[in-house]
Amino acid sequence: MQKAGLLLGGCARVWKSVRMASSGVTRRNPLENKVALVTASTDGIGFAIARRLAQDGAHVVISSRKQQNVDKAVNILQGEGLSVTGTVCHVGKAEDRERLVAMLWKDKATEDSMKESMHIRRLGEPEECAGIVAFMCSEDASYITGETVVVGGGTPSRL
C-alpha cells in the first residue's frame, strides 16, 4: 500500500510538471542556456513555437525565406523582451511549399470534413502546438525517447 502511494505521488508530481510546462503557470526557464533554430518561424505554428521556446529561456534563431518576414518576427519577439535573432534560410523547394499551403483548408467543405473527424470538433491554434514542442525540448522530457506525439485534436492518426 505504501508503494502504491509513493507511485501515485510520483505520477502526480510528473503530471503537475507536464501541465505546468505546457500551460505556462510556473516558468523556471527550463530551456536556459540552450539555442533553438526554428525554421519557417515567422508566422503560424513556427512563430508560436519560436515564441514559446524563447519564453522558456532559450535563445531562438528565427528563419524564413524573406528577410522582411525575419525582421518583422524578430522585432515582435525582441519587443516582448525575448532573446531572439534571425536569418534568411531556404528550406526545400518553393513550389513544394506553395503546393502544401494551397492544399493546409482550401474550402469550407474540406475544413468541415476535417473537424468532423476530430474529437474536439475544431481546428487547432498555433499556440496549442507550441506547448508540446517546448515541453519536448525541456529537461521535463529528458526520459522520453523515440516517441511520436500527435497534436491533432484527437484526430485518428497512423504514423
Folded structure, characterized:
With 159 residues, the protein is mainly alpha-helical. Helices cover 49% and strands 9% of the residues. It contains 6 helices and 3 strands, in the order αβαβαβααα. The chain has helices at 2-23, 44-55, 67-79, 94-102, 108-117, 126-137; strands at 35-38, 59-64, 84-88. The chain has a 3-stranded parallel β-sheet, covered by helices on one side. Helix 2 (44-55) packs across helix 6.
Number of strands: 3
The number of helical elements comes to 6
Class derived from helix and strand content? mainly alpha
Distance between the termini: 39 Å
Average residue pLDDT: 77
| Sequence stretches where pLDDT stays below 50 over 5 or more residues | 11-16, 99-103
Please give the structural blueprint.
Layout: H1 2-23, E1 35-38, H2 44-55, E2 59-64, H3 67-79, E3 84-88, H4 94-102, H5 108-117, H6 126-137
Parallel strand pairs: 1-2, 2-3
Helix pairs in contact: 1-6, 2-6
Protein name: Dehydrogenase/reductase SDR family member 4
Pfam families: adh_short, adh_short_C2
InterPro entries: NAD(P)-bd_dom_sf (IPR036291), SDR_fam (IPR002347)
